[in-house]
């Protein structure tokens, strides 16, 4: 844990980078998940693919929950609407801080 | 702190997202050309069918070129899902009109990627996409030239046969 540097925190989650292991960690509250860069890209892709509007449609997603598998199905999380929105915001900000995103509305509005 | 993410990926994530959308678009264009080839083949328009088969192969080549580029840059290329391909056309001319509309949409999308890459100083992506800009000009021209044949030769049975004979896969 000491070799990890905190990159960014959202309301529920915290994102770390480990220089020594050349990887990333996300503290999802229930569990600390280790991610390689390509696993991080894959997580972003999955979270981006979630249509949040479906959470407000009783017929499509009556419980407002998402099942999220991470790291080639090594981990499984069940997240509610607020947690998904928070994870989206976290990842958006993190990619900006890591220097591979051109813009992030949530961070730039805070500056 | 080491720049681990930048060491892993040479392009911006926004560019990667747009390139993945382009992969999807090229994949759909390829499938759409196959549907057109099938329509032409079934009605004896063999020249047009050959042209459409070749277009389908070219669109797939474009898709693969972008797909490989995204992965080579350390990104995450997404295999496209293709659905809702139109197989219904009322005439040979409509087939080519649809093809031109499709090519124009592809050109617009490519131009948006170039504009975004330039805005974000993602020069590697901008440079890579230049080939597609030139390619799209040629694609649009070849279909426009075919549509001109309908104006010149008419739309009757024999005219259609003569037009079809003039259409050759490059």
Automatic annotation (TrEMBL), chain A:
Domain of life: Bacteria
Protein name stated in the entry: Uncharacterized protein
Lineage of origin: Bacteria, Pseudomonadati, Bacteroidota, Flavobacteriia, Flavobacteriales
From TrEMBL, chain B:
Location of the Ferritin-like diiron domain: 9-154
Record's protein name: Ferritin
Family that this chain belongs to: Belongs to the ferritin family. Prokaryotic subfamily.
Function as written in the Swiss-Prot or TrEMBL entry: Iron-storage protein.
SUPFAM superfamilies listed in its UniProt record: Ferritin-like
UniProt xrefs under PANTHER family: BACTERIAL NON-HEME FERRITIN (PTHR11431:SF127), FERRITIN (PTHR11431)
EC number: 1.16.3.2
Location in or out of the cell: Cytoplasm
Catalysis performed (reactions): 4 Fe(2+) + O2 + 6 H2O = 4 iron(III) oxide-hydroxide + 12 H(+)
Chief location of this protein within or outside the cell: cytoplasm
Entry keywords, A to Z: Cytoplasm, Iron, Iron storage, Metal-binding, Oxidoreductase
Domain of life: Bacteria
């Amino acid at each position: 844990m000491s070799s990890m540097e905190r990159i960014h925190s959202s309301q529920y989650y915290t994102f770390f980078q480990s220089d020594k292991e050349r990887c990333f960690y996300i503290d999802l509250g229930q569990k600390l998940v280790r991610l390689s860069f390509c696993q991080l890209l894959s997580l972003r892709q999955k979270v981006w693919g979630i249509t949040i509007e479906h959470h407000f449609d009783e017929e499509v997603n009556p419980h407002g929950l998402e099942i999220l598998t991470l790291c080639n199905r090594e981990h499984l999380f069940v997240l509610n609407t607020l947690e998904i929105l928070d994870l989206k915001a976290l990842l958006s900000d993190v990619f900006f801080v890591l220097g591979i995103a051109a813009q992030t509305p949530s961070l730039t509005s805070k500056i | 702190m080491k720049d681990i993410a930048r060491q892993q990926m040479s392009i911006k994530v926004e560019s990667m997202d747009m390139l993945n959308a382009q992969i999807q678009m090229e994949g759909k264009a390829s499938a759409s050309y196959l549907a057109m080839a099938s329509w032409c083949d079934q009605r004896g328009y063999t020249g047009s069918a050959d042209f459409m088969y070749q277009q389908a192969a070219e669109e797939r080549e474009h898709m693969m070129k972008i797909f490989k580029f995204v992965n080579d840059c350390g990104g995450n290329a997404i295999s496209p899902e293709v659905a809702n391909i139109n197989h219904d056309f009322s005439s040979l001319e409509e087939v080519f009109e649809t093809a031109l509309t499709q090519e124009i949409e592809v050109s617009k999308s490519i131009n948006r990627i170039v504009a975004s890459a330039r805005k974000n100083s993602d020069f590697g992506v901008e440079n890579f996409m230049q080939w597609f800009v030139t390619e799209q000009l040629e694609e649009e021209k070849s279909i426009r030239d075919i549509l001109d044949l309908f104006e010149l030769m008419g739309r009757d049975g024999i005219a259609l046969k003569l037009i079809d004979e003039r259409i050759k896969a490059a």
